[in-house]
Amino acid sequence: MEDTEGGRYKDYRMNKTLIIKHLALATLSYLLMGCSGNSNLQNSKNIETNSLVNTYIKSIHSQGVIQISDSPCGAVNRDCLNEIFTKYKFDVPFEETFQAQETDTVAWTKAIIDTDSVKILNSAEVKFIKETPTFGGDESIDKTFYVISNPIFSKDHRFAILNKYFYCGGRCGNGSVLIYEKKGGEWILREEVCPIVS
Question: Residues 175, 118, 120, CA angle at the centre, nearest 5°?
Answer without folding.
Answer: 80
